Amino acid sequence: MTLLLGPPSSGKTTLLLALAAKLDPKLKFSGKVTYNGHEMNEFVPQRTAAYVNQNDHHVAELTVRETLAFSARVQGVGTHYDLLAELSRREKEANIRPDPDIDVYMKAVATEGQKANLITDYVLRILGLETCADTIIGNEMLRGISGGQKKRLTTGEMLVGPTKALFMDEISTGLDSSTTFQIVNSVKQCVHILKGTAVISLLQPTPETYNLFDDIILLSDSHIVYQGPREHVLEFFKSMGFKCPERKGVADFLQEVTSRKDQEQYWADKDQPYRFVTSKEFSEAHRSFHVGRSLVEELATEFDKSKSHPAALTTKKYGVGKWELFKACLSREYLLIKRHSFVYTFKLSQLSVAAFVAMTVFLQTEMHRDSVIDGGIYVGALFYGLVVIMFNGMPELSMAVSRLPVFYKERDNLFFPSWAYALPAWLLKILMSFVEVGVWVFLTYYVIGFDPYVGRFFRQYLVLVLVKQMASALYRFVAALGRESTVALTLGSGTNATLLAMSGFVLSKDNIKKWWLWGFWMSPTMYGQNAMVNNEFLGKRWRHILPNSTEPLGIEVLRSRGFFTQSYWYWIGVGALIGYTLLFNFGYILALMYLSPPGKHRAVLSEEPQSNEQNGGSKKGTNVLRHIKYSLSQHSNKGRKGKRVSGSTSSHTLPASGMVLPFQPHSITFDEVTYAVDMPQEMRDQGVVKDKLVLLKGVSGAFRPGVLTALMGVTGAGKTTLMDVLAGRKTGGYVGGNIKISGYRKKQETFARISGYCEQNDIHSPHVTVYESLLYSSWLRLSPDINVETRKMFIEEVMELVELKPLRHVLVGFPGVTGLSTEQRKRLTIAVELVANPSIIFMDEPTSGLDARAAAIVMRIVRNTVDTGRTVVCTIHQPSMDIFESFDELFLMKQGGQEIYVGPLGHHSSHLISYFEGIQGVSEIKAGYNPATWVLEVTNSSKEMELGIDFAEVFKNSELCRRNKELVKELSTPAPGSKDLYFPSQYSTSFFMQCMACLWKQHRSYWRNTRYTALSFIYSTTLAVLLGSMFWNLGSKIEKQQDLLNALGSMYVAVLLIGIKNAYSVQPVVAAERIVFYRERAAGMYSALPYAFAQVLIEIPYVLVQAVVYSLIVYAMIGFEWTVAKFFWFLFFMYFNFLCFTYYGMMSMAVTPNQHISSIVSTGFYSAWNIFSGFIIPRPRIPVWWRWYSWANPIAWSMYGLVASQYGDIKENIESTDGTTTVEDFVRSYFGYKHDFLGVVATVIAAFAVVFALVFAISMKMFNFQRR
């Protein structure tokens, strides 16, 4: 088992990918990798080797056990079975009788058809996941297991399979040291028992984890600096003149000794002048070192292939048979549909509402068969049914996109072929299509009064089922092509626009330009629409012949709209829809098979100067822990005697820095604090009777200025919970006990002004730079009395302190995708809080996800912060020895939210060690062992049961607890002459300044967020050109009724589709910023209204540009009348329509917890708005009881404005089905649009935009969907 070490961006991930045959084939690489002498093309490397990703991608709705069971089921038992057969043969030969227990276990594990249950349970136990085995995994919006548990699950997914070589990338992120130790230890057992190979890269391995490994590979600047046995690594560096100090973890030493900033402190030969040794020089020296020489010799001799057991390398592509894989995927898909039952039930109820609306709008008693115009209404009803059924599949798109990252992981590990993933989704949705379409057809068919013959009823049902299948397959295909929500939505909306325009209803076949005829013949909606109208209008009820006519009315209606009149077109339509369904599903499978996940563009920024100066570069910050050591000696006397640390503000200055804003130091005390939540339903189902689940059981303590306190405990001990309670960040639950600030009762409004909270997941706006993030934070959080110059100087000071100066102009980016690295984001999180000049700072796991060197940098910054006289509390997961000992005090908690040690650490953790060693039965600490790891090990729940003691009780009866209570009591009384915190206003800045600051940030974010702004612009421009070419010059030649309807169709498609696209595409933007908004609002930066105001205002110019470009292109190409008034009316209504939809999208996102739900909720409104838009059924023909809704519909008002302004005053004659009339009269009689009503229409459409924006603002203020 090999440990891979190296600083960030040294090439660890690339090396692991190359060894696991997972490198991007587009990359050029040389050299070869062999397994047992076999090259990669002689076996299936993806199934012989498993790469465990550092990102945790899982299906959020599955439980831990289900995820592992699925993984085991598809990967199969693999070679365990072959090995067992070989083992029993050898046992018989050698006459060995195995241990019966082991024998049963081994046989049970390896027996095929055993559903891999035993393996799953075994891995759950090894990884310590039994407690959460039946908990769902969850995601940002769905509460599930913790980050550490997700990390273990990612590892477990690969362990349940039969792979022999494991390549694990940074698996310890977010885990405490004892959990990391357990995982690595369990992997070691697997490797040694099953004779496997494991290469594991870790960020901060503790000494005991480090000692588990056999070999070490040390990477730096893409060079292998050392590779060989763990025992010889220090010897190698000693030969180079570098020595690892005592009480320093070897792993930390190895990562720092190649770094330019830290190398000098390890130079051992003080007689010789020090010079920086580069990675290349180390690498060359290693070749001549005895370990390197033996490695070269080993590589020179080829591995004897005949010694490789045939079962060692996998030659089958998949673990189990195709039918088994299909069944496994099918059962998982079925389970997910059950878990998503709310979504599907909601869609059904939405469809029922739409059906109810449709049947009451097109009610039989109101529907006549006396003229071609009456037939047109029936055509509208059929078209509406088609559109509703088609668009009801739209949420499929976002659901398919959200599951792609998990699919790519499983596909690349050869869990199953693409078709096994794609087919179950299709087959299970067929049944749902029958149900959904059944609801629609059974409700609407006879009530609307379609042809009563039952055969025609079932034929319509068949067409709509096929339309539904075609649409679902199309959206899945688009999702697999787009692979990313914004791109997929844009593609989806573009496809919808083309399909609608080419359906034969919006634009009649006879008017389609010859260059667009191919589009008409290729459009699946055209076949669906033709089959529907053909089925209806060739029925008995439409066979009567009107006076002055020679043909049946049904044929006349079909002719007037350009539909086909032959009865065989029904079956052509059905055949085409089946063909398209198969085509799109096949396309989906191909896209899944051949397209790779969207690329990750990551610029890694080196912050070290590259020149190899004689003295090893700049002296500044040479010793990462120098400040820590310096301040330890300063503080060991200051804070540990239980005395209050006080002093005037002037004494609190940064070490060796020029200027700092004055602040008042504050202590925080808490006495008997409790926190409980309502008992989760899952636990009630398991028979728990209590109403409340208690997470904190009466904890007490004090945090003081100038004292750095560590909050520590195993995963689930309540560290973050306690911090959230103290900081006032909990959004639910029941808090009890006393919390005081400098002796006065804590009030959240004033407390937010003097405190900072660094969250574990570094949440920042992705499209602003580092410097802008700090400027924004200081602008909103520092007192307005501080002038701009001082503020900027202070920001520079903070950037110097947290070492962010080289990164000032770098965009923050998305975590793990673009912009800053994890460690740089962590520093930015701290800086954003520091520029607010707080007195008390809470930090949630500031070192998780960082390598040892980065963690030391962050800790140096934390230490510097404490030295300014601030009160700092950090929760910490897996500290190395020197990081742990840089803390002054420890607040240790055990599972269940009770404190078991509160007090000073002492020099080399002496106080802590002597306290626990004094408890009977606790084993002594080994020399050189990390005290942090030791204390977690000796106090875990299994040790408590073994010793039969409760550490919380032991602490309550100790002298230490008594001293703690005294300190809490002392600090809970206000100091003489002190005053309670008071601020004249809740926020630092005025309402106007909050608005300006938020607008400033939104402006920068939007300008750089080209994926949103540019895509919207490109989409509307492309659609303008498409519609312009489809409806070329149709606006000017109005001779027949159909010409007017065609011109209207062009407006309808734009109003509906660009509008809906705007609404959909703004939702991810609002969702991403909303998480940042929750953090900033909790920090007391602004109230919700200025934020909403900025978000609303920033859309105005972008939508204006979109509307102007769209209007100019379409107006010219379709050939509307060029007068200033008419053009400006057109632009006005288009602009406000786009704006309405954008604000509607923002509003729907603000009132729902996540994007899925908001897209489903808004879809229902779109279908209602669509039917009452005035195009499918004109307003005078809508029954009286529904007419009010067309007045409450923004699309109807947009259509009113566009049609009335263009055609409401034209006096020229036009041929209609009722004879000749003027355009103005036809528009007035058929649509009910009057030209002199335009002023009112303009006011109403503007009012809609204002109302949606207001509801958005109020919702942001009222609703908080973040559960803490």
Lateral arrangement of strands in the main beta sheet = 4-5-6-1-7-8
Could you list the spans in which at least 5 consecutive residues all have pLDDT below 50?
601-659
Apparent shape: globular
The CATH topology of the largest domain is Rossmann fold
What is the end-to-end distance? Answer: 40 Å
Helix content: 40-55%
* Rg on CA atoms, Å: 35 Å
Name the CATH homologous superfamily of the largest domain.
P-loop containing nucleotide triphosphate hydrolases
How is the biggest beta sheet arranged? 6 strands, mixed
Mean pLDDT: 85
Strand content: 5-15%
The CATH architecture term of the largest domain is 3-Layer(aba) Sandwich
Q: Total helix count?
A: 49
CATH class label of the largest domain: Alpha Beta
Number of domains: 5
- Secondary-structure-derived class: alpha/beta
Secondary structure tally: strands: 20
Subcellular location: Membrane
Keywords: ATP-binding, Membrane, Nucleotide-binding, Repeat, Transmembrane, Transmembrane helix, Transport
InterPro entries: AAA+_ATPase, ABC2_TM, ABC_transporter-like_ATP-bd, ABCG_dom, ABCG_PDR_2, P-loop_NTPase, PDR_assoc
Transmembrane segments: 342-363, 375-394, 426-449, 461-481, 487-507, 568-595, 1012-1032, 1044-1064, 1100-1120, 1127-1145, 1157-1177, 1189-1208, 1237-1258
